[in-house]
Amino acid sequence: MNVLLVGMGSFPEQPGGLNRFAFGLLDALPDARLVALGPGGGHPRATLAGDRRSPLPLRLLAFRRGALPLLADADVVDVHFALTASALVGRLDARPLVVHFHGPWADESVVHGGSRLGAAAKRALERRIYRRARVVITLSEAFRRLAIERYRLDPARVHVVPPGIDLERFSPGDRRAARRRLGLPEEAFVVASLRRLAPRMGLDVLVAAWPEVRRARPDALLVIAGDGPERARLESVADEDVRFLGSLDEERVPDLYRAADVCAVPSRALEGFGLVVAEALACGTPSVVSDVGGLPEAVGSLDPSLVVPAGDGPALAARLLGPLPDETACRAHAELLSWSRSAERHLELYAEASRRRVVFLDHTAKLSGGELALARTLPALDVDAHVVLGEEGPLAALLRRNGIATEVLPFAAASRSRHELRSPLDAVRTLVYAVRLARRLRALRPDAVHANSLKSGLYGGIAARLAGVPFVWHVRDRISADYLPRPAVALVRAALRFLPAAVIANSRATAATLPREATVVPSPVDVDEIAPVPHDGLRVGILGRIAPWKGQHVFVDAFSRAFPDGGAVARIIGAPLFGAEEEAYEESLHRLPSALALNGRLEFAGFRDDVAAELASLDVLVHASTIPEPFGQSVAQGMAAGLAVVATAEGGPAEYVEPGRTGLLYPPGDVDALAAALRTLADDPDLRARLGAAARERAHDFAPETVARLLESVYANLEGS
């Protein structure tokens, strides 16, 4: 994977944690390149552009010129500084984007004396970059929370990856020899602090507390390395036993850690992790830190007592004098922070960022056939999936339980009909919703939008067009006047001609009703082993939403003719989902047993989550739709369960139920033909077993993994078109 790191400045010419980290990551990733503001450096895979003496616009222009050739070859871009990344806005969208959140740049500028207006501009720039990122990386959990809360980033996209350390360079060594090289007394109790000398680093607290340390340890010496705006003030108030080394060459930094008995990191604010803590530990030297940002995480599992309240000088002095972890323990803790481990985790996150991002839409959260198909497919897809539903409901809960990122963008219930725009007001509501969704899509920045229903296809197609995102419309309904109202047929056909970049149909029967070519992708079913439930007599069931066209009345009538008496039992599994008409139909079904003299042999199971258990209790599954079914998911589920199925000879089921081999077919609505088929299966257990075994084998073609690969090929063709 070709990774382009977008840094801030050169290293070691421009010291600091961000630059140190970016160049360390560059060394750990052999296929990476880095571009940063220069001049300086000499790393063979670093491009440094821009003269620090030039005005900022000219520096950023030079940076852009240097970065663009590298950007063209990158598989993924990893941004470490929002300002330099801003020079590439407009070109970053072409590559998967990862952002390292090293800290709130805007807040840091205020802490260092910058204006509120300038900070507001910096925060706006940061948000612009961060919200484009598919993955955001922080060095600590503390900064992860800050990134989520302050910048309103999606928590699912923010990951903690502790920094890596050069464990060869930062390693234990001869303390006396290190002190001699730095010109420090060999017998002193040395406390060291390597910091930028700025107010937020809290070094004034350390200097003020130092006399207390000296009273307890007259041989104590405080060594402060680094430079910055606070140096003159700190030197003016420090005792003579506080030594300021100024900026330290990188080659001498390990010696400073080795020379110290303990390091002090008394930061007041905005500390992401504290690389100096990790590097000192790698040299075998513990650090006493303040309870700011990620510092407690840097030492917590080693010794939580090394953490003191920020700004508390007496507590800092007392802990510097207390018992400290030994060299072996410090080194062992630091070895958990190897660059190899950090690089491995970065590569995993780069791969995650490189996955195709698809936003899936559905207007409803009820568990109807199309929604169940979506829930089965998503876990098997190799995409970064995000679902936007028009309402809360069982589908949203199911997706979240399965770890699928799911949000609800509420759509007015009055207009959430499955496919119709019943009035001008419905049309207006749908258009307003499409505009809201387009705004959300721009924030999510997907590679494709996939509508899972007719209604979501209408508003989703408009929203995707407005957002400039390729749109895929998955049609799970036959667009025909025998299945939909004529106005809906005209509207959907017109939309299908113009809105989608690709169309998916769940069967050839559905595809034949569409005004343009479609890729046929069947609905998925789980093909797991189902243990049959022991029972007496023949049990025949029908599975699916209760609705007049689903033909439950045909099923009951045929069952009563096939088995006017005896021990056979009929079972209706399902419930009405959409409106008063279906509820009234269910009530009429409850009146049938007495009219047909079934004497308690008709059971109503209602809606069931555990469909597998229901299927395991049956011997035969019936499909009785009175008009051609687009796919017939219940038939495929029965086949996957190894049941003998009896389905109508039109629509989707007729495409995969082979008569006499994987099931039986009969003309839709023909009660006598269905009754005869049921009688045949009742009289021939061996036939039931043969049909069930062959059906189960055929159902493997509908496994979620198989369906997922077909969908992924559709997405891939979008990119190639």
Any overview of this molecule?
- There is one protein chain.
- The chain is of the alpha/beta class.
- The strands form four sheets. It has a seven-stranded parallel β-sheet with strand order 3-2-1-4-5-6-7, sandwiched between helices. Strands 16-15-14-17-18-19-20 form a seven-stranded parallel β-sheet, sandwiched between helices. Strands 10-9-8-11-12-13 form a six-stranded parallel β-sheet, with helices on both faces.
- Strand 15, helix 17 and strand 16 form a beta-alpha-beta unit.
- The chain contains 30 helices and 26 strands.
- It is 43% helix and 16% strand.
* Terminus-to-terminus distance: 24 Å
Oligomer: single chain
How much of the polypeptide forms β-strand, as a percent range?
15-25%
Helix content: 40-55%
Low-confidence stretches: none
Q: If you compute it from the alpha carbons, what radius of gyration comes out, rounded to the nearest whole angstrom? A: 34 Å
Mean pLDDT: 91
Described by the principal axes of the CA atoms, the overall outline is: elongated
Total strand segments: 26
Strand order of the largest sheet: 3-2-1-4-5-6-7
Category from helices, strands and their pairing? alpha/beta
Task: Outline the biggest β-sheet.
Answer: 7 strands, parallel
Note the total helix count: 30
Supply the key terms:
single chain; alpha/beta; 7-stranded parallel beta sheet; 43% helix; elongated; 26 strands; 721 residues
